Amino acid sequence: MCRSQPMRWPSGKAWFLVVEQARAVDPGCQSEAEGRGHPDTALDIQGCCGSRAAGWCGRTPSSLTLLGLETPAPPSSMAPYHIRKYQERDRPRVLDLFSKGMEEHAPTTFRHILKLPRTLALLLGVPLALFLASGSWLLVSVTSLALLTALRFFSKYPWIQFKVLCLRSDLSDITKSYLSEPGSCFWVAEADGQVLGMVGVLPAAESPLRREQLQLFHLCVASECRGQGVAKALVRTVLQFARDQGYSQVVLHTTMLQRSAVALYQRMGFQKTGQFFSSLNWRLFAIPSCVFVYPLPSAQASQAQGQAGGP
Ligand SMILES: CC(C)(COP(=O)(O)OP(=O)(O)OC[C@H]1O[C@@H](n2cnc3c(N)ncnc32)[C@H](O)[C@@H]1OP(=O)(O)O)[C@@H](O)C(=O)NCCC(=O)NCCS
Where is the N-acetyltransferase domain positioned along the sequence (predicted)? Predict the structure, then answer.
């Protein structure tokens, strides 16, 4: 279905997306897919919700169909994927993707914790104190090892805690949380009948009624399918949905430790507007949540119009 190894390719190398269909079929989740110039090379996908839009991505030129034009065959490295609305049968795979997507940040968190001054003080201070008290190198070695093991274990903790929180709240019933009200949605990217990516949106808690901010949640792509534009296509689906639903901003929270996600959001035009500690654990580990905002052009245009004295 996908490349067996995750990979990144340098910016500017050729890549392809095929948009086959662009008609929305779901009134509660309406958007359309369209081909447009990609900053690097050729074509890109913009939004496809419950539609039959499909994409192929690859590194080498091959065939391509765009809205009825001459169609090159998709590269063999990746099967065509499409983005559609979540269905209950997707639940096990979606939860699995989410769990793995969170757990994978533990090693980065461990490295981050090791660099904190308070950790260095602990790792040097405790063994030194023990050595001065006992003169035993063995005790020093065992203590250092035990401290490192404990830190490695605790580096998983904030992610596990976040995972449990989500599994008990919005992800406990995805249909109810994301698909029962207009103005919210949950999509999956699917290829060969297998879910390989996901993302959800809800009106931001601060402005649930005013349709101002749409908040993006749980963007995740299977590790073996990364670096092929799937997340980008999912985010574009969100942006198109937000436009269609009349939101003025798309907002999301992430941490700077989620480096791929931060790179993706920044590359797509999201701006970091602030940061905060979502709980004591995150503060303890010095991992702030960052707020990223994508102002929608229609909202920007009306703001500019307002400033210029327009209606
Ligand atoms: C973040 C994530 C969704 C990206 O998925 P993806 O399908 O690999 O992303 P894409 O292929 O669409 O990449 C789009 C852009 O993101 C950036 N990007 C993504 N992964 C990157 C990486 N590892 N290093 C640098 N840039 C990266 C690039 O700018 C890329 O654009 P480019 O290829 O044109 O340069 C994926 O890594 C993931 O699921 N991570 C774990 C879960 C997670 O942390 N989710 C974020 C929740 S806020």
Answer: 146-297
Task: Find the DSSP H helices in 104-136.
Answer: 106-114, 117-134
Confirm or reject: Cβ of 258 under 6 Å from ligand 1.
yes
Atom of ligand 1 nearest to the CA of 228: 11
Return the domain boundaries, the chain: 27-100+164-307
b/e per residue, 231-259, with b = 16+ CB within 10 A? bbbbbbbbbbbbbebebbbbbbbbbebbe
Spatial distance between the Cα atoms of 71 and 288, rounded to a whole number of angstroms: 46
pTM over 0.90: no
Q: Which residues pair with 275 in a beta bridge?
A: 290
Read off the pLDDT of residues 178-198 as tens digits, 9 standing for 90 and up. 999 889 999 999 999 999 999
**Which ligand 1 atom is nearest residue 6's CA?**
8
> Which CATH architecture best describes the domain 27-100+164-307?
3-Layer(aba) Sandwich (3.40)
Query: Which tokens in the block code for residue 218?
Result: 């749980």
